[in-house]
Amino acid sequence: MPVTGSCHCGDLSYTLAGDAPTGAMACNCSICRRKGYLLHFAPADALTLHGKAEAASVYQFNHHNIRHTFCKTCGCAPYGGGTGPDGKEMAAINLRCADGIDLDALQIEQFDGASL
Question: Which burial class, exposed, middle or buried, applies to 80 when counting CB atoms under 10 A from its CB (0-12, 13-18, 19+)?
Answer without folding.
Answer: buried
